Amino acid sequence: MTTVATGLQGLMMDQPLLLSALLEHAARWHGNAPLVSRLPDASLGRGDWSHCARRAARLAGALQAVGVQPGERVATLAWNSTRHLELYFAIPGMGAVLHTVNPRLFPEQLRHILQHAGDRVVFLDPQLLGLAARLAPSLAGVRRWVVLCDAAELALAAAGLAAVEHPAEAAGQGDGVAALQGLQDYESFLAGHPETFAWPRLDEQAAASLCYTSGTTGLPKGVLYSQRSIVLHAMAISQPDAFCLSARDTVLPVVPMFHVNAWGLPHAAAMHGAALVLPGARLDADSLFALMDGEGVTVAAGVPTVWLAVLEAMRRVGRAPRALQRLVIGGAACPPMLADALGAEFGIQVLHAWGMTETSPVATVARARHATPADVAARVHESQGRPLFGVDLEVVDGDGRALAHDGASQGELLVRGAWVASAYFGETAQPGALRESWFATGDVAQLDAEGLVRITDRSKDVIKSGGEWISSIELENAALLHADVQEAAAIGLAHPRWGERPVLLVVARPGSAPDRADILACMATRMARWWLPDDVIFVSSLPHTATGKLSKLTLREQYRDYRFPEPGKS
User: Fold this and answer.
1) How much is the pLDDT for 188?
2) Domain end among 193, 212, 231
3) Known catalytic membership, residue 476
4) Residue 42 lies in a domain
5) Where are the strands (E) in 25-136, listed by range?
6) Which is catalytic among the residues 196, 460, 468, 469?
7) What is the pLDDT of residue 331?
């Protein structure tokens, strides 16, 4: 798009959109809004936005004192906590780049990401000290490791290398901390620095945050967000037709802060002065229910697998958490049965959102509009919603031609917008996913006359049988309608006649023994018979990616030598 000069400029103040402004606003006008953090010992730490701002100022001074420069990447290996929140604002506020790293990734991926980003300082939770000790020998560029605890907690962690996520790796690592150059606890790192900081007036296009993709093929790729894009994204997700956030809300991001900036919720909470509840590493259903109930959470956000488990906890208790009004579900398609059950049984509104690392991540949210017909409005959550202002979508065929918005024409989903990536960090060549200012998402989708996008599958997960497409997502959603199915995954496997045929893998609900024929009969009420899986395989669990999504890649690899039953046999 070409910028056209009009010859006359508006007479408005030039105020750059900066993350430091979000923090200053929250501290000045909503300073007593609570910030709650669940600590490793399950106790709760309490503060507020004013306290967070003072701590962030000390942290910025400490980083400046050890020589961190503008544009330099500073990594975090940490769960959702108020200390991590201080890093969220202090690092980009002083002009450096916050690089959040997913500790659930394989060590080889972590080494690549930290080396590729060029991190020199790493902040980490004490539970991850053992993981850091394993990584450090191959990360000579990291000159300082700061553990998010006080001196006494660091001494205990160093003595036992209590790596919660990697307990096996802690064994035999008694001398591992010697590899951690400049090892220091966080409170000592802050000590002596003032509670005020002169936040610089940065260019709003300056880099602020770096996240690496986890669902891509090949090595993870870095997406580098600007100050401007993060602020605009926070504004967009706060709108009434998105998450409808305000100073009256108490927000629980179950989505990790290392996963695409926790979907922008920490920034949006600061923008509106909302209270924040940060759950730490304990994300089991009972712990989340108790936390939401005890802290009066009104809005929570996470992937479908989290809320499927919380739904079961609600059913056991017989009620929802006392103040809970809205659940944001994203990261993977929300099963309609989950949204229906949360609404019908507990009166909770489900906001189905879609996006990806390259879209900051939220691009669409499923909400009905005033002109939406009643029958469509009742099922809006079965779509991924319509684009927020600042984002544009298109669906194209194999030749790149735009398809009709008729709710039936199916093609590749393209996206562009004010918070959509234009390139990957550290790559000189334009990525193949970028096409004439559009980003090719890799999703197969339909657009309808209401402007609702419905993603039928990932291009790599859609099943092509006899030249026709079968949606793995629709197969899974249909299977979940069976009362005894807890989780399901559909994959396409090589078939001698049809090219590919679907196979369904099912995790049964505890205490149940579902029948293959009953599941297929339940699914048959929702789809054509030729879509039905040729086999149903019962498993004790299904593999998930580091961000909680079903790992279809792992399943296809596990079952690559699978042979379909002979006709008439099961």
Assistant:
1) 98
2) 212
3) no
4) yes
5) 34-38, 44-48, 73-77, 97-100, 121-124
6) 469
7) 87
pLDDT confidence of residue 200? 98
Q: Which residues contact 372 (CB under 8 A, 6 or more apart)?
A: 380, 450
130 neighbors 169 (Cβ within 8 angstroms): yes
Higher pLDDT: 230 or 494? It is 230
Average pLDDT taken over every residue of the chain:
92
Tens digit of pLDDT for each residue in 303-323?
998 999 999 999 999 999 999
Q: Please state, in angstroms and rounded to a whole number, the distance separating the CA atoms of residues 231 and 570.
A: 55
Q: Is 374 helix (H, G, I), strand (E, B) or coil?
A: helix
CA distance 362 to 420: 10
- Structural domains counted in the chain: 3
474 assigned to active site: no
Kindly state whether residues 532 and 449 are assigned to the same domain: no
Q: Which of 213, 359, 364, 441 is catalytic?
A: 213
Residue 24 annotated in active site: no
Average pLDDT over residues 228-254: 98
What is the separation of C-alpha 264 from the centre of its chain, rounded to a whole number of angstroms? 9
Query: Which of the following is catalytic: 204, 358, 394, 450?
Result: 358
Domain ranges, residue 420? 383-459
Kindly state the average pLDDT of the residues 2-13: 87
Active site residue 199: no
Q: Kindly state the DSSP code that residue 385 receives in the 8-state scheme.
A: B
Q: Which of 427, 464, 530, 557 is catalytic?
A: 464
